[in-house]
Amino acid sequence: MEWSWTGVLYHPGWVVSTVILGLVVRMQRKGSWNPRACPVDLTGKTAIVTGANTGIGKFIALDLAHRKARVILACRSQERGQAALEEIRRKSHNSNVHLQLVDTSSLRCVRDFAHRINQEEKRLDILVNNAGASGLPKAMTSEGLELSFATNHLGPFLLTNLLLDLMKRSAPARIVNVSSANHWRGVVDFSHFHGENLTYRLDS
Ligand SMILES: NC(=O)c1ccc[n+]([C@@H]2O[C@H](COP(=O)([O-])OP(=O)(O)OC[C@H]3O[C@@H](n4cnc5c(N)ncnc54)[C@H](OP(=O)(O)O)[C@@H]3O)[C@@H](O)[C@H]2O)c1
Ligand SMILES: *[C@@H]1O[C@H](CO)[C@@H](O)[C@H](O)[C@H]1NC(C)=O
Ligand SMILES: *[C@@H]1O[C@H](CO)[C@@H](O)[C@H](O)[C@H]1NC(C)=O
């Protein structure tokens, strides 16, 4: 049979595979999820969201503010944090939203932040460890820790532990860690903790 474009375009296989694809997509489709449909009210509760100036963290903080919680945005940039603070207050009509600076890659910063929270807050009901980053450059912090590991794990781990007593006193309290499916691919090698023997995806 002679090859022709129209022959390829009108081949019945296209119809069959399009119908199969359509069915698969339909089967995979989940019902829409609307967090606002959940009626929980957080009046009287205090929440901290790290990395709350953008992305997932900002959305979580806005939702908690809508539910009337006292919300502390824990951000590393005064400027970006202030912009989010104003946006969240305006959209939620909740003025009980506050900004506290913290850089999760610095243990000293985390200690200072936790100290301020422990001094100033009467209770802490929700801690969302959301701040994090992937694809950071190969670098060490001034405290001698590998930058990605310090930012995503050591800082949040220290923070959680320093706030734990306050949270226990506020029981029932909740800690939420925002993670990544990529963690399945990792293995623990203690030599990595100080940046030794690490390979980075971007290394050539
Ligand atoms: N989106 C995804 O598909 C995905 C997938 C897997 C995991 N995650 C994880 O989910 C979390 C939120 O993701 P996202 O998409 O919302 O990310 P994003 O838009 O990049 O926001 C990350 C937030 O973390 C803050 N942050 C980063 N490093 C920080 C540090 N050293 N100290 C304090 N804050 C820091 C950022 O602050 P600045 O604005 O100042 O940089 C920002 O507020 C992250 O932990 C991310 O690793 C996301
Ligand atoms: C969340 O992070 C904290 C601090 O790193 C850790 O102690 C806790 O086990 C984590 N929770 C879960 C469910 O992984
Ligand atoms: C780095 O890896 C090499 C080879 O696996 C190993 O011999 C060495 O001990 C590692 N370095 C550290 C600090 O663990």
TrEMBL record:
Keywords: Membrane, Oxidoreductase, Transmembrane, Transmembrane helix. The chain crosses the membrane at residues 6-25. It holds the Pfam family adh_short. It comes from the Eukaryota. Signal peptide: none annotated. Belongs to the short-chain dehydrogenases/reductases (SDR) family. This is Retinol dehydrogenase 12-like. The lineage of its organism: Eukaryota, Metazoa, Chordata, Craniata, Vertebrata.
